[in-house]
Specification:
about 450 residues; mainly alpha; Amino acid/polyamine transporter I; two-stranded antiparallel sheet; 18 helices; 4 strands; about 70% helix; transmembrane helix; transmembrane; transmembrane transporter activity; APC_superfamily
């Protein structure tokens, strides 16, 4: 019997599901605080930058159709050792990122229902229940994952479209226009929105750009996709374009309705707070639930397949490549869940301490993948790749631009605040927990496993 694989449309929906999380529902005001009435334009610029990076990932996919995404591309371009390092750090950080998303989902649900979202026991119970549900979904097979992924994606899109349509009707029928009111908001006697200059523009664009990340994990499960070498290069940019138009529509309507409330409200689901109609509020509220669940489904599909890809290339024990009759990489799935649970649990769900771990791997991927595409184009790769149609624009010019932008991201990233915490007396001190976690995840663990791999190979 032919095994079920994700179709082209499902890959687009997976891209959307992997990118749209809770941010657009909970905190669209963060970019507005920086950009003011220029916020929609900032989202458009961020989308263009995201597409530049996504095209690099898509170009790599036409040369390498193996699962693993950045790991598979790095291995084919630069050989076993660099590929192994990218793969291990991608797996660890991907598991942690999944844990962060799960923690955020549980905390948000608790907050919405007025339950103490800082209570360790409540978070742990919700966390474990969510992970068990995701494990069950994946063990039921690719077809079930595809259905739930598609339904959750369509559910969150429906909620966002309801916001845009309902808000648009209100704006048209009432003639409301509060688009620029945010520019009059003051904080400690000073305008909340800073004057637009180059540094503010860059800061706002980077803040908006992170709302588009997640596309880099989509190709991880390419083994379970129909014609990934053809479908991924088309699906990734299309998915990001759809999201860009939705984000711009959301921000424009939100600012027209009440741009001041957008940055001042204390409600958890910011978009819902802009409506008085209880039906619309509930639609947006439940859309946020669906969105949180959907992005966790996307993570549960892609992250274990990094571990499976390493095992399939004999760089980890073959047990991690084991699949059930319904095509679930069960051992890799269980190990990934353990990583996703243990790290946030050990940090007592302190998001500030664990976010840095997933951020670092993202930078590694954004630097390595564009370089890999250039290597493939000039036939400098260490391993054989597919005989793909080469294009100088998508395989050289765009990857060079993506690499430069990624390097800029690394330089502009707020490393100081990530590796420091504010003490009780208000001074900034080194965040020892974050430093140790990074050392273990990005130096000690990869080196130990690399030595083990090479020793076994010898």
């Amino acid at each position: 019997m032919k095994k079920k694989k994700l179709s082209f449309v499902s890959i687009i929906l997976l891209t959307i599901n992997a990118i749209i999380g809770t941010g657009i529902f909970l905190s669209p005001g963060s970019v507005t605080m920086l950009a003011g009435d220029k916020a929609p334009l900032i989202y458009l610029v961020a989308a263009v930058l995201a597409i530049v990076l996504a095209v690099s990932f898509a170009s790599a996919a036409k040369y390498v159709k193996d699962s693993g995404a950045a790991y598979a591309y790095a291995k084919a371009a630069f050989g076993d050792n660099i590929g192994f390092y990218v793969g291990i750090t991608r797996f660890v950080s991907g598991s942690i990122a999944w844990g962060v998303m799960a923690t955020g989902a549980v905390k948000t649900v608790l907050s919405i229902y007025g339950i103490d979202s800082s209570h360790f026991g409540y978070i742990t119970i919700g966390f474990i229940v969510l992970m068990l549900v995701l494990l069950l979904i994946n063990t039921l097979g690719i077809r079930i994952v595809e259905i739930i992924n598609n339904v959750s994606t369509l559910g969150k899109l429906a909620a966002l479209l309801v916001f845009i349509i309902a808000g648009g009707i209100i704006v048209i029928t009432t003639g409301e226009n509060h688009y620029s009111d945010v520019m009059s908001v003051v904080n400690n006697g000073q305008p909340l929105v800073p004057p637009m200059n180059l540094s503010v523009f860059i800061a706002a664009t980077l803040a908006a750009f992170y709302a588009f990340t997640g596309f880099e994990s989509v190709a991880t499960g390419s083994k379970d996709m129909e014609n990934p070498e053809k479908n991924l290069p088309r699906a990734l940019p299309i998915g990001i374009l759809i999201i860009a138009f939705i984000y711009m529509g959301i921000v424009c309507i939100a600012m027209l309705l009440n741009s001041k409330m957008l940055v001042e409200t204390k409600e958890v689901v910011v978009l819902a707070s802009l409506f008085n109609n209880p039906i619309i509020r509930n639609i947006i509220l439940y859309g946020a639930f669906v969105s949180m669940f959907g992005i966790n489904v996307a993570a549960s599909f892609s992250t274990p397949r990094i571990l499976e890809a390493l095992a399939a290339k004999r760089q980890l024990p073959s047990v991690f490549a084991y699949r059930t009759k319904l095509d679930c990489p069960l051992v890799a799935m269980i190990v990934t869940i353990l990583f996703a649970v243990i790290i946030p649990l050990s940090f007592r769900y302190d998001m500030a301490n664990i976010m840095i771990l997933s951020s670092l791997s993202r930078f590694i991927q954004f630097l390595v993948v564009p370089l890999s595409v250039i290597v493939f184009y000039f036939n400098l790769n260490k391993e054989e790749v597919l005989s793909a149609t080469k294009n100088f624009a998508t395989d050289v010019i765009i990857p060079v631009a993506a690499f430069i932008f990624s390097l800029f991201l690394v330089i502009k990233f707020d490393w100081v605040s990530q590796f420091s915490v504010v003490s009780t007396d208000g001074t900034s001190v080194l965040n020892i927990a974050a430093i140790v976690a990074v050392a273990i995840s990005y130096i000690i663990l990869p080196v130990v496993l690399l030595i083990w791999k090479n020793t076994r190979k010898a």
